[in-house]
Design brief:
Layout (H helix, E strand, L loop, with lengths): L5 H25 L3 H17 L6 H8 L2 H9 L37 E9 L10 E5 L20 E5 L5 E7 L4 E2 L5 H8 L5 E2 L3 E6 L6 E7 L18 E2 L1 E4 L2 H6 L8 E9 L3 H11 L7
Parallel strand pairs: 1-11, 8-9
Antiparallel strand pairs: 1-4, 2-3, 2-7, 5-6, 7-8, 10-11
Bound molecules: benzoic acid (BEZ) and fe (iii) ion (FE).
Fe (iii) ion binds next to loops.
Cofactor: Fe(3+)
GO biological process, one term: catechol-containing compound metabolic process
Pfam families: Dioxygenase_C (PF00775), Dioxygenase_N (PF04444)
Length: 292
C-alpha cells in the first residue's frame, strides 16, 4: 500500500480519535445494552447489503440522518448573496440532453408546464456568460427517468449554456413532491422514528463556469406541504422560490408552449463565487484547526 502523506495521516488520526470520543460518549449517554448494539450492527450490515450498483442505501442513510446536508453546508459556506449549495442526491446523470436557450427538457405529458428563466451572475452583479447549467427533476408521478427500467433516453433533464449577458431560459414541468426509497432498512428507520420519507417539490441545478466554484443546488417552490420537513434536510430558506402563474397567450407562445396554454414561471438569480472567493471563505469558516 502506498504511504500516505504525513498531513493526511495526521488528519486521519484526528478524525478517528474524534469519532471514537463521540461514539463512546453516545454509548455511555444511552447506556446501550448488548442487544441494542448487536441490533445496530445488524442494521448497518443490512444497509450495506441493500446497496447495488444502482442503489446506494448507505448514502441514503447519511441523507436522512442529515449528515450529507451538514457536510455540504460546512464545505459550502454561505457568503453574501451567493447562491447556496444543497445536496446533489442520487439522480444526477451525465447522460443528458443538450439544449439551446429557450428549448425544453421534458417530453409532452410529463407534467404541468413551467418556464425557468434567470441569469448567472458574479457577486458584484456582473454577468457570467457560457456557464454550463445542468438541470434535472422528477416527472409529475414523482419518478426520475433513471427510475424507469425501460428508460430509452434522458427526460426531464437537460444541459444548456448561459448567454453573453448571463441569461438562460428553458421549458420544464412544475416540480412535485416525491418519496425517497422507503422499501429498505432506511425506510424502516424512518418509520420507527415516526418520520415520513418525502422530499418537497424541487428542481435540481448544477452550474459550472471557468474560474468559478461549481454550484450544486436546487430550488424549492414555496407552498409545498413538505417544505418544513424534508426527509433529507436539503431545503434552505434562500432556495425557496415563488412560482408565478402566467395566463397570457403571447407569453406562452413566446416561450414555445402551445397556444392557449397556461404555465408557471420560475425566475432565478444564480450568483457564483470565484475559486479564490470560495477558498478564502472556506478557510475562514473552518471549525477545526486540524485540516489538511
Ligand atoms: C434528490 O433530491 O434527488 C434526493 C436527494 C437525497 C436523497 C434522495 C433523493
Ligand atoms: Fe430530487
Amino acid at each position: 500500500m502506498a504511504l500516505l502523506p504525513a498531513s493526511t495521516c495526521r488528519r486521519l488520526r484526528f478524525i478517528f480519535q474524534t469519532l471514537i470520543k463521540y461514539l463512546h460518549g453516545f454509548v455511555n449517554e444511552t447506556d446501550l445494552t448488548t442487544d441494542e448494539w448487536m441490533a445496530a450492527i445488524q442494521f448497518l450490515t443490512r444497509v450495506g447489503q441493500t446497496c447495488t450498483p444502482l442503489r446506494q442505501e448507505m448514502i441514503l442513510l447519511s441523507d436522512v440522518l442529515g449528515v450529507s446536508a451538514l457536510v455540504d453546508s460546512l464545505n459550502n459556506p454561505v457568503e453574501g448573496d451567493a447562491t447556496e449549495n444543497t445536496v446533489l442526491g442520487p439522480f444526477y446523470t451525465d447522460d443528458t440532453v443538450h439544449i439551446a436557450n429557450g428549448e425544453g427538457i421534458a417530453s409532452e405529458g410529463k407534467g404541468d408546464y413551467m418556464y425557468v428563466e434567470g441569469q448567472v451572475l458574479t457577486t458584484e452583479g456582473g454577468p457570467i456568460p457560457g456557464a454550463i447549467i445542468d438541470t434535472w427533476e422528477s416527472d409529475s408521478d414523482g419518478f426520475y427517468d433513471t427510475q424507469y427500467s425501460n428508460r430509452s433516453h434522458p427526460d426531464c433533464r437537460g444541459r444548456l449554456r448561459s448567454a453573453d449577458d448571463g441569461s438562460f431560459g428553458f421549458r420544464a414541468i412544475v416540480p412535485v413532491a416525491y418519496p425517497i426509497p422507503g422499501d429498505g432498512p432506511v425506510g424502516e428507520l424512518l418509520l420507527t422514528m415516526n418520520r415520513h420519507n418525502m422530499r418537497p417539490s424541487h428542481l435540481h441545478m448544477m452550474v459550472e463556469a471557468p474560474g468559478y466554484h461549481k454550484l450544486v443546488t436546487a430550488f424549492y417552490p414555496e407552498g409545498c406541504k413538505f417544505i418544513q420537513s424534508d426527509s433529507v434536510f436539503g431545503v434552505k430558506k434562500s432556495l425557496v422560490v415563488k412560482l408565478e402563474q402566467i395566463d397570457d397567450d403571447d407569453e406562452a407562445r413566446k416561450r414555445g408552449f402551445p397556444v392557449g396554454a397556461s404555465f408557471k414561471l420560475m425566475r432565478l438569480k444564480i450568483v457564483m463565487l470565484t475559486n479564490e472567493q470560495f477558498k478564502y471563505y472556506r478557510a475562514k469558516n473552518a471549525k477545526s484547526k486540524e485540516t489538511v
